[in-house]
Structure formats: structure tokens, C-alpha cells
Amino acid sequence: MAVVKVTRPKLNAGEKMYLGAIFKGFVITMKHAIASMRNKTRGADAMESTGLGITMQYPEQKWDGHLPDYYRGAPALVTDEQDRERCVSCQLCEFICPPKAIKITPGEIPSDDPWAKVEKRPKEFEIDMTRCIYCGMCEEVCPEQAIYLRKDYAITGLKRADMVHNKKKLYEIGGKRVGLVNKWNELK
Amino acid sequence: MDLVTLLVILAKVVGLTFVVVLPLVPISVYFERRFSAIIQDRVGPNRVGIPLTLLGAKKDFSFFGLVQPMADGLKLFLKEDFTPSHVNKAFYWLAPALTVVPALVTVCVVPFGSDIIVNGIGYKLVIADLDIGPLFVFAISSLSVYGITLAGWSSNSKFPFIGGVRSTAQMISYEIALGLSVVPVLLYYGDLNLSNIVEQQSVNGWLLLPLWGNSAPWNNGGDYTAWIFWIPAMIAFVIFTTSVFAETNRMPFDLPECETELVGGYHTEYSSMKFAMFFMGEYAAMVIGSSLVVTLFLGGWSLGPWFDTWAAGLKIGSVGIGGLLNMSVFMAKVVAFILFFILVRWTVPRFRYDQLMRLGWVIFFEAALINVFLAALVIAAPQFGTLATAAGLALLAIVTGTLVWVLKVSEKKSAPISI
Asked: Structurally, what CATH architecture does the domain formed by A67-184 represent?
């Protein structure tokens, strides 16, 4: 490799005095200070800044509108358009889950049920949000497209028990998801 | 000494140190954080306020986060005060006090305002009206280097030690520039009493703003001394201000505690209130430094002759409260200067240690000496007459030229060895 000799730039008398450069620096810093006081910082609009500088004031202002479609938030269970639960309690998500956050208690569908052929549904479905790493593997592995990562990111609670999402909570977050569901197909 | 005098002294000590100067410390911390934030396009602490929701109100009252310093202080009180086993305990405990005490002792010579008149007797808003004000400040404030050095040494750990050594060298070097740069100012006033210096500035115009009273040529029969003196005064101001920055370990001279090289510098091993005391000492030194700059160069508590005379005549009953108004002017000036400190912090990058030493010993020391010569020449010019003044100027030019030439020759570096 060729050796590149970098020489120091020749400074003229004004630059050697140093004070001019300091003054220039003051102008730059003050320009920033004044701009952020007037809420005119560059990029403040794009960041939806409400106050000083470009900072978005979080709890008052949220970034929700800008979340991309592929955003991976809290995992949740979804129902189909007729409010039937999609999950067949195959437990694939439980087995794939890297931090072992998912716990499923499978329940049997009684034989007199019209959908007895589906055989299983979850009796209880718990996701421990203190363990979840939002990797999305559960969504990827689910054969029935029953579990999805939604856009909820502010998962809060005052104790550990609050951070465990049970089945009711999961359906509440998940909502409805339309589209073909294999298990309701009578011909299959 | 009778009881009234004692009580007045006690009231001054308590009032001026604990009600005026100490609250300035958290206020300057708050300003530091908010002002740095807006310089960096951020918000800064704007949330901490009075939690009215706990008392049943609808909304919290945040008031721009002004309560933040209190929260910080509370946090520091509640933290574990950890003493590592490898430290030299006696000095480790002594060091934080040794940084705070000198900074607070120097408060006693700062004139905070004009006299408060009660029943015809004027009470000066100075704790100790010493006739050697600036010398006292230099003598005491240079003691604070002991605190830092002892902290670095007694911590018995390498980074604090390097920080302590650096600060010793730095503070001793800049003490000289600091002392020499005020000589022109003291020559000009012919007085070492800070109250008298401010009094003179109030009547005759500030040192850096000689526009009224005796210093203006239209009032004193065409004497331009005060205006010509503006040049050495400005040089002294720049040297003094920069040296104050170095003395208080502020950016761009914060080498004793530069985070990038020395973790936390001399206070790496300290926690809780001991750390807070270093912090407080540093900010108190900053407050004292800026009040000294304001006192010597920017007119202290005066705000133009019209305001001063109006304030002096102000009375509630038989108590002249002009002094308090003047004090608030002084405080405003000090806070403005602290804001300047912060502006400098975020503008000028940190110096390398050899650059710092070169600036102190080679540039400021020489510049301050030449400045003393120049100032003396300006002051003596009316008595000297034209010929002697011209001769003096020529001598000054020769001396300056020789100094610059010597510095240039002695600093000639050999060409860097190519790799």
C-alpha cells in the first residue's frame, strides 16, 4: 500500500490567532440554541417535535403513525372474521420460542361439537412479556396463522404477574384477521 | 463589638452565602443542563416538578423542570456513600471539604450590591470589606487545588492520581496568568478594595464600557485615557477569563477530570455526598470566578448611572432598598456569565495537555507581562508627555517583537520523521 503523507494545513495569521475561530464557533452554537428555542431546528418537523430541538416528547406525542408494516411489537392471538379462534394449540410456537416465553395449556374439543374434527383448542395461552424478545418466530412457525406480532410496544405493568399476557388479553391485542383458515374447511 | 454589629455580620454571612451564592449552584447546574440541551438540539430536563397529582390535582406542575436540581441533590443524599478499602481514609474524607470551603470562603469579599441604608446607617452588602480583595481571592481560591490533589492522591488509584497531578500543574500555572492579568486593572483603579472598584465603575463607567462619568472624554475635558485603556483592559479581560476557566477546571481546560481519558478524573473513587461536594465546589468556584470577572471588568452591581442613582433613592419606610435591586443586577450578570461559561464548554474542544501548558506559560504569561507595561504606559501617558510616551511605545514594540521572535526560534521543531 502506498504511504500517504498527510501534511498539516498551513494556517494564516488570522487562523493562528485562534480567537476568530472561537468566535465562529460561538456563532454556530448560538445559532443552534436560538433555532431550538424557536422550534426551528432542522428536522424538527419530520420528527414531529413539539418542544425544543428535534426531540419528540414521548408520552404526549407518539411515533405510532410512522411504524412500518413489518414492525414487530407484542405477539398476540387473532380470531377470524366470525370471531372463532384460529389457534389449534399445536404448541409449535411454544417449542420454537427462543426465550421460552410462551406457555400453552391445550384443551380438547368435545366430540359432540360440530368442529370436533379440529380436535384441540387452547384452554390457556400465556406469553410472558418479560421474557419475549419480539423475534417473531412464533408468527413464522404458526401453521394456522393464529399468532401475529402487532404494533403494541408499550407493555407495562406494576408487577411480574401484570407482564404475563393471558388468553383474554392476547385476543384483545390481536383482534380480527380475515383470510382463509384451513381448519374450518369442511372438505378437509 | 456590640451585639448589633455581630448580628449584622451573622446575617450577612448566612444571607449572602446560604441564600444568595449556594442556591446559584443548583441554578447553574440547571442552566448547564438546559442550555447544553438547546445547543445540542435537545430538550433537557423539563419534567421534574411539583407532583400535584399525588395531592389530588389534575395536572403536575413542572415549571420547566426547575425542581430537577433538588431531585438530583436528593438522589445524591440517598446514594450509598461508599469508601473503597484501598484509599487513604483521612485524606479521602478531607478532600471534598477542602474543595468546597475555599470556594465558599472567597464569597466574603465579593460586593453583592450597594449599601442598604437603615435609619441613615449604610450597611455594605459585603461580608468582609477587605482592602486586599483580589489578593484574598487568589490566596484562598488557590487552596482548592489541595482538595483536588489530595483526592487524586488518597484515592490510591491510577486515574484519580493522574487527574490530581494534572490539576496541580494546571492550577499553579494559570494562577500566574490570573494574578498578572489583574495588575493593569488594579493600576487603573489604584485600589485593591473590590467595593471601591465597583463604586468607581458605577460612577465613572465600567472598565469595559467607559461611556459615562469621568471616563467619557466629553465630561473630563478631552482626556481619552479611559478609552485608550480599553485595549489593555480587553486583553486583561480575555486572559483573566480564560485563566478563570482553567482555574475552575471547566471546558476547554477540564483535563483533571476528562472523561475520555481519565474515567472521572480525581473524583473517580467518590460517590454520594462526597462526590456532590466536589461538584458543588466546582460550581461554587465557577460562581465566584464569574462574580470576580463581573466585579472587576463588567461593573459589578451597577447598571448605568441612571439606574444606580434611581435605586439609591429608593426607600421603603426608612430602609433604602436600592442595595437589593443592585444585588439582583449583580446576580443577573453572574448568571449571564455562567451561561457564557456553558456556551464556551460546548463550543471549544478540549486542549491537549502540552497545548494547555504552552498557552499558560508561553502565551498568557508573556501577554500579561506586556499588558502590564502597556497599561502602565497608557495610564502614565498624560504626565509623560508625547516624547517619553513615544519612546515607551517603541520600547514596548521592541520588547514584544523580541519576545515573539524568541518564542518562535525556541519552538522551532525538527521535521517529523517520515514512516
From this structure: 2-Layer Sandwich (3.30)
- What per-residue confidence (pLDDT) applies to B419? 56
- Residues B207, B221: Cα–Cα separation, whole Å: 19
- Residue A164 — φ and ψ, nearest 5°? -95, 115
Which residues 378-417 of B are in CB contact (within 8 Å) with A?
Answer: none
Closest CA–CA distance from residue B302 to any residue of chain A (Å)? 27
Residue A148 falls in which region: left (phi positive, over 0), alpha (psi -120 to 50) or beta: beta
Strands (DSSP E) contained in B269-352 are 315-316, 319-320
> Which residues on chain B are in Cβ contact (under 8 Å) with A37?
38
Q: What is the pLDDT of residues B163-177, one digit of tens each?
A: 888 888 888 888 888
> Running along chain A, 188 residues long, what does each successive block of 10 average in pLDDT?
84 79 89 84 75 79 82 87 82 91 89 80 90 90 86 88 88 78 60
Domains of chain B, by residue range, sit at: 24-50+60-78, 83-407
Provide, as residue numbers in chain A, all residues whose Cβ is less than 8 Å from the Cβ of B348.
22, 25
Question: Testing the interface with A: which of B347, B348, B352, B358 to mutate, by most A Cβ within 10 A?
Answer: B347
- Residue B372 vs residues A9, B180, B187, B396: alpha-carbon distances, Å: 35, 8, 9, 11
End-to-end CA distance of chain B: 76
Domain ranges across chain A:
13-59, 67-184
Exposure letters B141-180 (e unless 16+ CB within 10 A, then b):
bbebbbbbbbbbbbbbbebbbbbbbbbbbbbebbbbbbbb
Of B187, B188, B179, residue with least CA distance to B206: B188
All three cell numbers of B63, joined, read 415549571
Q: Which of residues 221-240 of B touch A (CB under 8 A)?
A: 238
Kindly report, residue by residue over B204-241, the tens digit of the pLDDT: 878 777 777 777 777 777 777 778 888 888 889 999 99
Collect all residues of chain A within an 8 Å Cβ-Cβ radius of residue B37.
52-53
User: Which residues from chain B sit within 8 angstroms of residue A28, using beta carbons?
Assistant: 347
Mean pLDDT of chain B: 83
The grid coordinates listed for A127 are 406469553
Selection from B24, B113, B111, B15 nearest residue B326 by Cα: B113
Of B24, B242, B290, B279, nearest to B151 by C-alpha is B279
Cβ <8 Å between B42 and A41: no
